[in-house]
Amino acid sequence: MSKVYDLIIIGAGPAGLAAALYAGRSRLDTLLIEKAADGGQISITDDVENYPGQNPEGESGPSLIARFSEQVNRFGAERISGNVSKVELQGNIKKVYVGKAETLYEAKTVILATGANPRKIGCPGEAEFTGKGVSYCATCDANFFEDFEVFVIGGGDSAVEEAMYLTNFARIVHLVHRRDELRAAKSIQERAFKNDKLDIIWNAVPERLEGEGLLNKIVLKDTKTGELKEYLADEEDGLLGCFVFIGNIPNSDLFKDQIDCDEAGYAITNENCESSLPGVYVAGDVRVKSLRQVVTAAADGAIAAMQVEKFLAENK
Description:
The protein is an alpha/beta fold. The protein is built from 6 helices and 17 strands. The chain has helices spanning about 15-25, 60-75, 140, 155-165, 185-195, 295-315; strands at about 5-10, 30-35, 80, 85-90, 95-100, 105-110, 115-120, 135, 150-155, 170-175, 200, 205-210, 215-220, 230, 240-245, 250, 280.
């Protein structure tokens, strides 16, 4: 008879690691599964400055996550590396299959902490300059571009709101939209049009991003005429900011046909991170929420783990 864990956590980003920490401290028999390196999106972030209690000088994403991982290891959660190929979340015993051989692991509860990824532009230079001028999070990186020239790609609510937020830091913000009309709510548009530091470039998409070490050239393509236009960083700056807000992709394909999700694929939960199935919890960026940050992901993980402990106590 195979072992049945108290809890299986899928994903070792901030949410999954926090869940494993709290579960380990609660003496739950816990298995944490991650297919790649710990940390999720934060593991590729060069500078983190807004996580409470961190080094006041700032630090890299990997160094912050390394401390998360060390804490998890201290409290005894079992860990395996592998890609979860399938889950069966119905019933009292949840089934999780890992790897090409689909090795079966079973548990009384599951926390889904699979995260989400920002939708990419897909143009040359984007990957090369991520963290070196290209960002997907204004809240995380706005202060690094104080008094610089910044471009924001997108035209929906998030793009316009983030562009306005960036005007608090940048010298000038160019909002680049592929059409001649924004998709954002009219109330948001009205505020944007009144912002003197916000310039809108209509009918344009990034063609390529260039630079030497840091992003200092953006080439935009006119979507109607095909004309290319180059934007160069000021010589004194030596850097352009490019913030991309064209949507996120939740990593929910594994389970979105088993629990309630919204139209975009984000898991629908209550404030206790409970999904529509008993014993199944969702933490971090993959669930419906208003703010996706390390601190909110970690909070989700803690909440979910404590709810698991409560669920197990009530269902002995």
